[in-house]
Amino acid sequence: QGRFDATGPVACAERKGQPMGQCQMGVARDGGGTATVVVTRPDGRKRAIFFEKGKAVSADLSQADGNMSFKATKNAAGMYLIDAGDERYEFPESVVFGG
């Protein structure tokens, strides 16, 4: 809906093998680790990543994206590492939980 609890930069790459750059994001939190993070890529397109109970569960991928695979992990430092199709995103758990 365009109303975010927080906005700021996140690390991102639009294609496989591309070095990480910076994208802008907005997060709408519902509490308890449920949130939607909307990343605006350098080309102006947006990608939504959905979280439930602190776990990244999906992204708004479509067949038009080509690669519809989704993989997400959280490392020991509390950074989410997300592969959505050929795109990559990295951001701290504070994006999802606040703080």
What would you say about this model in short?
With 99 residues, the protein is mostly beta strands.
Q: What sort of overall outline do the alpha carbons produce when their principal axes are compared?
A: globular
Number of helices: 1
The whole-number mean of residue pLDDT values reads 93
Spatial separation of the terminal alpha carbons: 22 Å
Helix share, percent: under 10%
What is the number of E strands?
8
| Radius of gyration based on Cα positions | 12 Å
The low-confidence runs, each spanning 5 or more residues with pLDDT under 50, are none
The largest sheet, given as strand count, sense and whether it forms a barrel, is: 8 strands, antiparallel
Report the β-strand fraction as a percent range: over 45%
Order of helices and strands: EEEEEEEEH
> Going across the major beta sheet, what is the strand order?
5-4-3-2-1-8-7-6
Structural class: mainly beta
